[in-house]
């Protein structure tokens, strides 16, 4: 996350993040379709094997990059102090703090819908591996289109509109999933939901990276990864327990409503406030 800006400039950061997201979500369109076919014909184990082997291409791509020689600091600072400085910076930076809090809420109550998709596919829609693969592909296709939307129009639309608008579109599609049972319409909901989620995610990522200083970016993006990566498993646990009590559709709808409310709280908190400008690198 912190390395992205080193490969580009602040002005092109949103396009770079969107391009990265479009590649990632383009793979999400193809991958689940292939996985669904493999599960149906050769079993799930081959999916895991091929997934692991695919990382060889990522490693090869990183090895091909030609970077300036890394010069470590003469007196390396304490890791504990670096971590403390990162959290202190986030707590003292209003916009970054609010965006990370919203990310945590979405990670717990919104993103957890992906954990429930297998149960939704088998128990609600009664479709097999291929149907589940189609659900993931539709979601990935929407996210791919969302990434291209951010890359094309991200600089022309206010970031707050992209963040909150994308989040509310995503939440609205989750609420529709709670009541829709017609498979083609479910695919549309997941595609539009993926589009909204990517608008929210890519714009938030860009806002956080461009709102912090170059010296603190690595630590702040480490906290970003901690919030997103740490809240998602909590959301999976929460959604699993709640779905056992009230069912999958009600759990998805409850998470969507919480995301809508968190979006309104964020809108009120950020209304009338602009992020402090950060000097770019010379």
Description:
With 282 residues, the protein is mainly alpha-helical. Helix content is 78%, strand content 0%. It has ten helices and no strands. It has helices at 13-41, 44-64, 79-92, 94-110, 113-124, 129-153, 159-177, 183-211, 217-246, 248-270. α1 (13-41) packs antiparallel against α8 (183-211) and α4 (94-110) packs antiparallel against α10 (248-270). It is globular and about 60 Å long. The model has no long low-confidence stretch (mean pLDDT 82).
Give the key terms.
globular, 0% strand, 10 helices, 282 residues, mainly alpha
Please give the radius of gyration in angstroms: 20 Å
Average per-residue pLDDT, rounded, comes to 82
**Structural class given helices, strands, pairing?**
mainly alpha
List the total number of helices: 10
Largest sheet: none
Low-pLDDT parts are none
Number-wise, the strands total 0
Residues in helices, as a percent range: over 70%
Secondary-structure element series = HHHHHHHHHH
Choose one word for the global shape.
globular
First-to-last CA distance: 21 Å
Beta-strand share of residues: under 5%
Topology, element by element:
Blueprint: H1 13-41, H2 44-64, H3 79-92, H4 94-110, H5 113-124, H6 129-153, H7 159-177, H8 183-211, H9 217-246, H10 248-270
Helix pairs in contact: 1-2, 1-6, 1-8, 4-8, 4-9, 4-10, 5-10, 6-8, 7-8, 7-10, 9-10
Short description:
With 282 residues, the protein is mainly α.
